[in-house]
């Protein structure tokens, strides 16, 4: 049998992505493509007869590009017949308490969206926080007794040619005026493109088995499930996982040309979403071993033949694109599998992926500098696929930091110069001709990197080239929110460096008047951390105003990325409150029950900060807790794992730890004050405890049967049910177990407090 698979040395995306679609050159049909904006009365004339194959010129003057291009259902090019990934009769015996979950999946999002209306409106004045932008510190001798604030109009205009965006004029002072919202991005909603139909025939399966056997070598089994099972697993991956991070170009994806490690990694994740965990483990094991042996053989050849770098060998510093894609899926599978050994193995191989990130990013920078206006569809797909797999790596690093408490593997400063993904309309173009047409009518767009996005979102400033890009796609917003989370993690390290044990909230509240900050430490900390607070408010405003109706779920039309941004927003807020007393996330990996118990006990009795900033953030976090309750407990427990992104599970893990710890502290204070008859809680704190009580009652939690009831413990126990009821990723039931242990610790500590108060009252 002829081996049609690419060698490991090949980096050409055309090896398994088919871009050789034959179309008549120079004649582009506009049928099925709505290139007109229905909200504007404009006319667009396209001379398709003169359109060359390599045309990429910008829209001519006077031609108004549309905001989006919608595909009409009548277009035969887009006539994809529906495929149900969850109709396997082998899952008929799964007991969901009488609920046929797979039958309900097609309408889950509409049901949840119709029932869920938790308020997402930012609090009045939440984006009006004081703005403190960094500036060079003057010499102490040059600093007057009190620096008068300069009017905004009197400041020198920032240079648009300088690439150093950290420099400011030395006369700039702290401004109490909010940053202009003109620079705040608008998230553009686009129809979520459906994956094209993918079929695995018996001949395709035989080809995959042959390639797998070749890579594994003798002595390893290359047996695979039937083509029907493989197809259903692949479809489940596309329907449930790919939509949350679309880094594979499905329009040119060909199963019979895909390397077996990549295809099996996709099927392994798809098996998880079908709740076929044994099959998922087997497919993951084969994909992992096949990739390891492929890379080992490649490394052996390089070691034996290496003398000095060869300038004639292109892309010698990093692996082919399909290898990076496979590594990402395998590490994603292992690190969220819940198995401690698999998690450690995935974390051990993460540096390989991050090193590939840096080499590939450097190569992309060179390609951008040498790119010509005659870029064709194939080159564009390869470039865009490379960018998207890099950002998939960045997102994975961010998620692992939140889940396990490890430092971020990538940073904004060093690794943020990769261009953001291009327009989704171009990415989803089904043919070369339609891609050319969409290139012609697209809006002009400046170069825009992740670093530019963070600067614009946090500082309200333009990019290094002086341009301002505000029409963000949901994917760009998702990447930017992960970058904000990483930036918050780095910022909180400064807090611990200067004031060990304090959180961002405590540092902000320690100097309420910014003008009282003198030269030195106060000057630095107030300007820095007030600015972080304002940045979070800007992020929240961007997300909430993109969801004007306050919807907290997603529809099949819009896709899930904007909904995922709401979870990432809660994660960013949680980063700002995470201090030295945070729970050691190693509890998710430890097999020592006594060690886990001690870590939980230490977390419960650790010092807890209070204040206005905590009250504000806890209010935002609480909105996220209302979503599954209002959507319906049973519906969310049975469906969220199968449809929502893992960002929501991790955001819940991160925020429920903070919220329950804070609520437990308030319950203890309230109990002591009620016994002594004095006021101990602020009005906002009393209101939040009352909201928590009503939420628990709405969830049918019994708060009256126990002598001492810990609402924090009941909240932790309630949230655990969302993790260990129906689960896809193995890390979620482990999170549920930790939360149940945490609930017991809260109850013990509150009962101990009550007994001490009773004893003190008896002796008096």
UniProtKB/TrEMBL annotation:
Main location, first listed in the record: nucleus
InterPro entries: VerF-like (IPR051059), XnlR_reg_dom (IPR007219)
Composition-biased stretches (Polar residues): 113-124
UniProt-annotated stretches for the region Disordered: 113-189
CDD domains linked to this entry: fungal_TF_MHR (cd12148)
Stored PANTHER family: MIP31509P, RESPIRATION FACTOR 2-RELATED
One Gene Ontology molecular-function label: RNA polymerase II cis-regulatory region sequence-specific DNA binding
Domain Xylanolytic transcriptional activator regulatory stretches: 235-438
Cellular location(s): Nucleus
Keyword annotations of the record: Metal-binding, Nucleus, Repeat, Zinc, Zinc-finger
Protein known as: Fungal specific transcription factor domain-containing protein 76
UniProt-listed GO biological process terms: DNA-templated transcription
Keyword Plastid: no
Entry annotated with the keyword Cell wall biogenesis/degradation: no
Pfam families the record matches: Fungal_trans
One GO location term (cellular component): chromatin
């Amino acid at each position: 049998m002829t081996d049609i698979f690419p060698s490991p040395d090949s980096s050409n995306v055309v090896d398994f992505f088919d871009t050789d679609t034959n179309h008549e050159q120079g004649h582009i049909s506009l049928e099925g493509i709505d290139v007109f904006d229905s909200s504007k009365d404009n006319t667009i004339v396209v001379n398709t007869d003169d359109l060359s194959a390599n045309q990429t010129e910008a829209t001519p003057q006077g031609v108004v590009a549309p905001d989006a291009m919608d595909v009409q259902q009548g277009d035969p090019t887009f006539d994809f017949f529906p495929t149900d990934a969850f109709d396997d009769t082998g899952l008929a015996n799964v007991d969901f308490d009488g609920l046929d979950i797979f039958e309900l999946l097609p309408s889950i999002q509409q049901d949840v969206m119709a029932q869920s209306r938790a308020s997402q409106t930012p609090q009045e004045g939440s984006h009006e926080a004081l703005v403190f932008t960094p500036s060079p510190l003057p010499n102490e001798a040059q600093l007057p007794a009190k620096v008068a604030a300069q009017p905004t109009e009197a400041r020198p205009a920032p240079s648009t040619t300088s690439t150093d965006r950290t420099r400011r004029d030395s006369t700039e002072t702290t401004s109490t005026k909010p940053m202009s919202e003109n620079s705040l991005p608008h998230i553009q909603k686009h129809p979520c493109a459906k994956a094209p139909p993918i079929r695995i025939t018996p001949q395709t399966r035989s080809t995959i088995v042959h390639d797998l056997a070749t890579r594994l070598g003798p002595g390893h089994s290359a047996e695979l499930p039937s083509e029907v099972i493989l197809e259903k697993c692949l479809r489940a991956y596309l329907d449930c996982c790919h939509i949350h991070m679309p880094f594979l170009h499905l329009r040119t994806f060909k199963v019979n040309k895909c390397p077996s490690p990549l295809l099996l990694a996709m099927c392994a994740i798809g098996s998880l979403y079908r709740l076929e965990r044994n099959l998922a483990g087997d497919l993951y094991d084969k994909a992992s071993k096949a990739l390891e042996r492929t890379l080992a053989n490649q490394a052996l050849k390089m070691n034996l033949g290496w003398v000095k770098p060869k300038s004639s060998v292109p892309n010698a510093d990093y692996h082919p694109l399909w290898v990076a894609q496979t590594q990402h899926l395998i590490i994603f599978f292992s690190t969220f599998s819940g198995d401690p050994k698999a998690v450690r193995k995935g974390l051990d191989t993460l540096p390989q992926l991050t090193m590939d990130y840096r080499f590939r990013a450097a190569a992309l920078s060179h390609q951008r500098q040498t790119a010509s206006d005659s870029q064709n569809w194939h080159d564009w797909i390869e470039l865009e696929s490379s960018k998207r797999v890099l950002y998939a790596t960045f997102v994975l690093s961010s998620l692992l930091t939140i889940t396990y408490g490890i430092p971020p593997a990538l940073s904004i400063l060093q690794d943020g110069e990769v261009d953001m993904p291009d327009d989704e309309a171009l990415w989803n173009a089904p043919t070369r001709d339609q891609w050319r047409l969409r290139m012609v009518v697209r809006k002009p767009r400046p170069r825009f990197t992740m670093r530019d996005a963070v600067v614009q979102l946090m500082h309200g400033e333009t990019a290094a080239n002086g341009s301002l890009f505000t029409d963000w796609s949901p994917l760009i917003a998702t990447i930017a929110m992960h970058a904000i989370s990483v930036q918050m993690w780095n910022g909180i390290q400064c807090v611990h460096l200067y004031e060990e044990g304090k959180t961002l909230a405590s540092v902000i509240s320690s100097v309420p008047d910014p003008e009282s900050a003198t030269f030195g430490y106060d000057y630095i900390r107030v300007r820095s951390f007030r600015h972080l607070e304002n940045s979070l408010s800007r992020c929240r405003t961007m997300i909430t105003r993109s969801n004007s109706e306050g919807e907290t779920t997603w529809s099949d039309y819009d896709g899930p990325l904007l909904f995922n941004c709401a979870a990432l927003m809660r994660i960013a807020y949680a980063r700002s409150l995470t201090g030295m007393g945070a729970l050691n996330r190693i509890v998710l990996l430890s097999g020592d029950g006594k060690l886990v118990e001690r870590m939980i006990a230490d977390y419960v009795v650790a010092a807890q900060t209070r204040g206005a900033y905590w009250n504000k953030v806890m209010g935002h976090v609480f909105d996220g807790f209302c979503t599954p309750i209002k959507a319906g407990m049973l519906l969310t427990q049975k469906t969220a794992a199968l449809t929502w992104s893992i960002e929501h599970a991790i955001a819940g893990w991160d925020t429920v730890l903070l919220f329950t710890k804070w609520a437990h502290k308030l319950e203890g204070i309230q109990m002591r004050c009620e016994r002594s008859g004095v006021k101990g809680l602020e009005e906002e704190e009393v209101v939040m405890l009352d909201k928590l009580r009503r939420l628990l009652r709405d969830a049918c939690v019994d708060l009256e049967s126990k002598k001492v009831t810990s609402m924090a413990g009941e909240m932790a126990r309630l949230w655990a049910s969302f993790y260990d009821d129906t689960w896809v990723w193995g890390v979620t039931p482990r999170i549920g177990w930790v939360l149940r242990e945490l609930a017991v610790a809260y109850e013990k500590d509150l009962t101990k407090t009550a007994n001490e108060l009773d004893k003190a009252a008896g002796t008096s």
